[in-house]
Amino acid sequence: MKSKKHLPLTFYSVAVLLIGACKPTSATAQTTAVTTVSTSVEEKMYRPNFHFTPKKGWMNDPNGMFYANGYYHLFYQHYPDGNKWGPMHWGHAISKDLIKWEEQPIAIYPNKDKFIFSGSAVVDTNNSSGLGTGKTAPIVAIYTLHDMTKEKENKIDVEQQDIAFSNDNGFTWQKFDEGNPVIKNPGIRDFRDPKATWDETHKQWIMVLAAQDRSQFYKSKNLKNWEYISDFGKNIGAHGGVWECPDFFEIKVQGTNETKWVLIQSLNPGGANGGSGTQYFIGDFDGKTFTLDANFTKKVEQEKAVWIDYGKDNYAGVTWNNVPSADGRRLFIGWMSNWDYAQDVPTTVWRSATTIAREIQLVKKGNDYSLVSNPVKEINKYVSKTIKGKNLKGKGKLSIPEAGKIDLTQAIVNFNVKNLKQDTYTFTLSNATGESLSFGLNNSDHYLFLDRSKAGKNDFSEKFASTITKALVDGNQKEGVFKIILDKTSIEIFYNNGEKVITEIFFTNQPFTSLSVSSNEGIELSNIVINQLNIN
Ligand code: FRU
């Protein structure tokens, strides 16, 4: 949240510019006054076809996700009255399939200078909180209340954890005024983003929150009284910036009954390729203490950090609570932007989108555990046309002609690079104006890369396209398997069934219409399958 620290000023100046006067920031400021020029062009060019965006206003982190009564709920850090970060509300959207989202009225409003920061929500099935009225299980949201007045006065105890509850399956919310805060500030300036979950193994509510340079764990019987139990992470993993938005859950190793615990931990700055990024840790939890797996410790030491996504645009992602056990998936969504430039990207009506929802799995190879992420299978429902490409073999630049027959602003592109050599395979999406986005595999130095420096507008921020994104890969593999999800302004690359992921946004002046590949030694492409999506 680096740049937001100075935000009161930024917010007020933007508000003045946009709406002519400082609007009240309280719960009563419900109308939106974001106006803009040529919004139709921006809607057409940049409003994603299927990644969630708020109709208007600013969005950052996903919050409070849970499943109940047929809907996946997604809340998010939202400032409906401006297109930069400002007084934080919890916006709300619902979906039956994690792909098509319907925006709902604001869920939780700030109160004057007390902003509603990131947090989580649980379905309190047995009404352990006593906040239920008896008809449906209460949903309890736990979030950080951030006091802007204290922030301006340079106080330490700026952040505390509060709860709100819903007795209609998450559609309307009431703050728990008589009981807040449920966790007072213990004298730590950055003390936020509680993620609460039911810990079935130890039969307790647990909560992880970010405390500056570590995560702290708490437990509770009733979601109202929380006891601090331990912390994790000081001097472990990446620490280039403040830790934010953790998540903590137990997950089965694919294909076994063994379970491990995963800590997801965002930080800003200090991400894999600059700015905001999300690392993860795998270990064990005895109900009190999280202990890193021994081999994972080695991996963290070697690689400095292990990232859930190596792209610049997947931040503050966390997972859904209460996904039915018959489904059993661990479902994740991230904010598809980066604090380095999120407030400057060239949209005005809204700013930011979420990533595609992903399923996270834990895999074990030998004694090494790692996470893989892949787009949720529900995306396949929206495939309206499939073109299978001919295998391609040759040197120099080759066109993948099937891609030209598909609207690449909503598509899934799959292919395998066979018989990998010590070579660089560069794939290029391009359009008639000469804009291009390149990605691929450097199999001499063993990394994936993505370069958006020629992919349209990038002068709004020096940090946006000044470096090529890289993700190290295993050098011993014979084949590289690519699955790529394309929307108007985003690319999500899932490599080798989600072993490595790169998510980035771009702002071309025209859609991409072709895809080519180039190599020096020659390339063999197989399993070319291009899916047209139709999600509107
Ligand atoms: C992460 C973050 C959180 C905070 C929220 C405020 O992007 O900085 O730590 O709760 O954004 O909007």
Automatic annotation (TrEMBL):
Q: Which Pfam families match?
A: Glyco_hydro_32C, Glyco_hydro_32N
Q: Name one GO cellular component term.
A: cytoplasm
The record's listing under Gene3D superfamilies reads: Exo-inulinase, domain 1 (2.60.120.560), Glycosyl hydrolase domain, family 43 (2.115.10.20)
Record-linked InterPro entries: ConA-like_dom_sf, Glyco_hydro_32, Glyco_hydro_32_AS, Glyco_hydro_32_C, Glyco_hydro_32_N, Glyco_hydro_beta-prop_sf
SMART domains assigned to the protein according to its UniProt record, in alphabetical order: Glyco_32 (SM00640)
Cite a single GO MF annotation.
sucrose alpha-glucosidase activity
Residue stretches making up the Glycosyl hydrolase family 32 C-terminal domain: 390-528
Classification via PANTHER family: EXOINULINASE INUD (AFU_ORTHOLOGUE AFUA_5G00480) (PTHR42800)
Q: What is this protein called?
A: Glycosyl hydrolase family 32
